[in-house]
Amino acid sequence: MSSSIKKPINLSCANNSAKILFATDEWFACADNIISPYPPTFIPDLYCEQGKVMDGWETRRKRTEGHDWCIVKLGCGDDEGSKNCMIESIELDTAFFTGNQTPRISIEAMKVTRMNKKAADDDSSDDDYLYNWMPGAVSRLARGKGIQGTGQSPETIRRAHAACQAVALHTTNQQSDEWITILPQTELQPGYEESRYHTFQLDADAKRALTDIGGVTHVRVNYYPDGGVARMKIWGYPLPTSSSTFVNSIEQTNHAAEEAATTIHPHSSSSSTNPPPSSKAYHQPELSSVLHGGKGLECSNKHYGVPPNLIRSTLGVDMGDGWETARHPHRPAIVTKDPVTGLQDTPLMDWAVLKLGLGGAADNSGVERIIIDTRHFKGNFPESVSIDATCCHDVSDDVICASASAAADNVDSNNNSTVKWFPLLKRTALTADAEHEFLRDQGKMIVNGYRGVTHVRVSIYPDGGLSRVRIYGCPAIKADENSMLGGEISRL
């Protein structure tokens, strides 16, 4: 073997300075056990106040929302100058957990970097930042380990999760608040001798992702939803200190493209000197407008309004001058939000199909601007909105509306229809009584912005009302300068 090839070490071993910084629950057994350097043991008749004594990390049966997880700071062993690691493989041992092993597990990884670049320049040897980013970690380390028979409060878990998101955003230059998945959600077998060992090699995509951020310092172990694992071994090797220069290089990039993706214009602040965006003239026409031949075709619910109202050229007069759906009868008793997106965690939605005028948006030019207006909807605006699109010049409107309905019912219409829907506006939160402006060339909310579009499907979550939907883009059909609708037209 070449001397240049490093021998992997167990990066998650306590003997190599790995530490547990946080665990949601340690009722039956502390998370520190999972990084123990010693083989797991089992004493059949040994019990404690919490129940059977187990040598691993075991959480109580989950009775609240969410799932259990813990954070492990990886150790570099004798290579004290290194802080970042590359991971090659994972071993999980469910020894003696024969009916109480976690049924499913996933592992994510991230590189924690100094939040303050000046501090990094002043004292590059200080590694406190590897620990104090996680709330409560310093106190835990001072105690030496977790406390058996305890679990974290929902608020503490929320703050810990927010800390995980914050370090991901910092490391990826605000590109993502998610950690890198190195082991997707995977089933584990019970801890009998013939089934206790589980070994996984990282795939090429995971390794590439770790390389792109210059290695990692921490892993997040996720139980789905609860249970126990005896030992975890993360095999890999420390990286040279120079690898940490990666983040410094991306911090010097231009941040202009990372500006806020949505510009909100409250109607309460509009005036003759500060008009809403929809009142301004743009070099590309409002393709959805009835003035250009736009049509409101169909919707899932029109309890208080109809889709044709959405494409009127004027500002909405009142709530009746818009499209509003009834309150969804199957809405949950308690609303929850996705911790990553911040949006309601719900599949419930209503939809409306609009046909663009002037032949729709031309292929390779596409949609440049979208305005979603919640004017007058102050207590009944949708929580969020998304838009899908299709380009079908030779398909009837009835077929397109049927396809939209099938897609909303989770029928795979793209495989069974000539109508192919694709995302145009990512799902995004809305506010009351305001115009929400999205620009293709600013932010990342408009996707597939250069594709041709003839129809759009506007989806609102979970229900509510919109005043106007305005789609601007390069028309596939050019109107005569002297007549917007009645004159001669020519296809580009």
Description:
The chain has about 500 residues and is of the alpha+beta class. The protein is built from 7 helices and 28 strands. Strands 2-7-13-9-11 form a 5-stranded antiparallel sheet, with helices on both faces. A hairpin with a 2-residue loop joins strand 4 and strand 5.
Q: What's the β-strand tally? A: 28
The largest pleated sheet is described as: 5 strands, antiparallel
Helix amount: 10-25%
Q: What's the helix count?
A: 7
The Rg value, from CA coordinates, equals 28 Å
Estimate what percentage of residues fall within beta strands. 25-35%
Q: For the largest sheet, list the strands in their spatial order.
A: 2-7-13-9-11
Structural class of the secondary structure composition? alpha+beta
Taking all residues together, what is the mean pLDDT? 87
Roughly how many Å apart are the termini?
A: 65 Å
The low-confidence runs, each spanning 5 or more residues with pLDDT under 50, are: 1-5, 118-123, 242-260, 481-492
Instruction: Indicate the overall shape.
Output: elongated
Topology at a glance:
Blueprint: E1 9-10, E2 19-23, E3 25-26, E4 47-48, E5 51-52, E6 57-58, E7 69-73, E8 85-93, E9 104-110, H1 117-122, H2 129-132, H3 137-143, E10 150-151, H4 154-171, E11 180-187, E12 197-201, H5 204-212, E13 218-224, E14 228-229, E15 231-238, H6 245-251, E16 263-266, E17 295-299, E18 323-324, E19 350-355, E20 367-373, E21 384-390, H7 397-408, E22 422-429, E23 434-439, E24 455-461, E25 465-466, E26 468-473, E27 477-479, E28 489-491
Antiparallel strand pairs: 1-15, 2-7, 3-10, 4-5, 6-14, 7-13, 8-12, 8-15, 9-11, 9-13, 16-23, 17-19, 18-25, 19-24, 20-23, 20-26, 21-22, 21-24, 27-28
